[in-house]
Design goal:
The protein is α+β, with helices and mostly antiparallel strands. The protein has helices spanning 10-42, 110-170, 176-234, 279-282, and strands at residues 45-46, 53-55, 57-73, 76-80, 85-90, 97-98, 103-107, 236-238, 243-248, 255-256, 261-266, 271-278, 290-295, 298-312, 315-322, 335-352, 357-359, 362-369, 372-377, 379-383, 387-392, 399-401, 413-416. The radius of gyration is 53 Å and the shape is elongated. The two termini are 71 Å apart.
């Protein structure tokens, strides 16, 4: 037996076997570790600092209609030309500040001045005719009164003759024909006296009708004169309140038609909002409804003041009167968001507004449960620009993810890292 061929001890054999199996053990451990990491990597998760949370709370809830609005001056004076004329002079340019009564422009007033002078002359002529008619009426009444007095005396004299002749006839001193003649003379004078009375009445009616006609003509002329004077006054284009000239006719010498706009003055101390929305939603609008106006972080309250009846291309316009029309945020032509309150409820569950998931036609959200976000079906009632009303699916205190989770709409739960 070769001395080199002696048996290997058991310790050496175990060590050699251990060395042979170590690579397989380490390989298996590596496979298990990679598998664990791969499973963790494949399981859906989201970082906590990448989500926004809101807490379900109890409170009041209002339903709103959302619209877009434009801030405009609450008072905008539109000054028009009273007649077709030309611009004589422009005193204020656009952007100039004006006070009550300040002259903005002057129109050519020669035409209105001629009209005023002509009407004044016509009124003077009619006044003269009225005086002449009154004098003629007075003179006619005086003449008729004198004739009437004479006829009354004649009638009295003839009646005395009738009585005397009747006595003489009874005494046989005169004939029946003489008595009849005196009676006929008395009747004739009585008829003439009645004719004078009737003539006086007719003349009085004629003169009164003539005077009434003159009075009517004078009234018409006076109305025309007042209108002419008003037109003359309106050739001075003046501001009727404090404000800013926002527009004025382009140049001196320009022609303007009757009713054409010459200048506009806006009161920039008070504003309103002209809002527009689809006519489909307009049926829910009503004058007097509360409204909120938002621009950035500023929120102003008001009410629906007027709904314009016309619909243009499916769009309805309504005016919002603000509780603070002079707020420093307001300026002309500022675009704002308008939210009109159509319903209100107290003591309801509400959740801060965020994107909802739509899963199989139902609304859903992810609710935080420990280190997991579980998809939960919810039912929404009222909604506005800030909150949803939760009618079922959530309880007070639930933490809900209100950031966009649409990438996980098909997941039942998501791990929060």
């Amino acid at each position: 037996m070769d001395p080199m061929d002696r048996p290997i001890d058991k310790t050496t054999i175990r060590r050699r076997r251990l060395r042979a199996t170590l690579p397989y053990v380490f390989g298996l451990m590596a496979i298990i570790a990679v598998g664990s990491l791969l499973v963790g990597w494949l399981k859906p998760s989201v970082r906590h600092d990448r989500i926004r949370l809101a807490t379900v709370e109890e409170g009041s809830m209002s339903a709103t209609i959302d619209a877009t609005g434009l801030v405009v001056p609450r008072f905008d004076q539109i000054i028009t030309a009273p007649l077709a004329t030309r611009v004589a002079r422009i005193r204020k340019k656009p952007g100039a500040a004006v006070s009550l009564g300040d002259t903005i422009a002057l129109l050519d007033d020669r035409g209105p001045r001629r009209d005023v002078t002509r009407l004044q002359e016509q009124i003077a002529l009619k006044e003269n005719q009225r005086v002449v008619s009154e004098l003629a009426l007075a003179r006619g009444r005086s003449d008729l009164a004198s004739e009437k007095a004479i006829k009354e005396l004649e009638l009295k004299s003839h009646r005395l003759d009738v009585e005397r002749n009747r006595q003489l006839f009874d005494m046989g001193l005169i004939t029946r024909d003489q008595v009849r003649k005196s009676e006929t003379d008395a009747e004739r004078v009585a008829i003439e006296l009645q004719h004078l009375a009737d003539k006086a009445a007719y003349d009085r009616q004629d003169h009164e009708a003539a005077l009434e006609g003159l009075a009517r003509e004078l009234a018409i002329l006076q109305t025309d004169l007042d209108q002419a004077r008003e037109q003359l006054a309106r050739t001075v284009i003046a501001a009727d309140r404090q404000g800013i000239v926002t527009w004025v006719v382009a140049s001196e010498g320009a022609s303007v038609g009757a009713g054409e706009v010459v200048a506009r003055v806006a009161d920039l101390t008070a504003f309103r909002v002209d809002a527009t929305l689809s006519d489909v939603l307009a049926r829910r609008l009503a004058e007097g409804l509360p409204a909120a106006v938002r621009s950035g972080d500023v929120r102003l309250t008001g009410r629906v003041d007027r709904i314009l009846p016309s619909v243009n291309n499916g769009i309805v316009t309504f005016e919002v009167a603000l509780d603070e029309p002079g707020h420093r945020m307001l300026r002309p032509n500022l675009r704002v968001d308008v939210h009109t309150v159509t319903d209100h409820r107290q003591h309801t569950l509400r959740l801060k507004r965020g994107p909802l998931l739509n899963v199989e036609g139902n609304d859903a959200v992810f609710v935080l449960r420990g280190d997991r976000a579980v998809r939960t079906r919810v039912e929404i009632g009222l909604s506005n620009f800030e909150f949803y009303e939760i009618t079922s699916g959530l309880v007070p205190g639930d933490q809900v993810i209100i950031s966009d989770m649409s990438d996980y709409r098909n997941m039942q739960e998501v791990k929060i890292r």
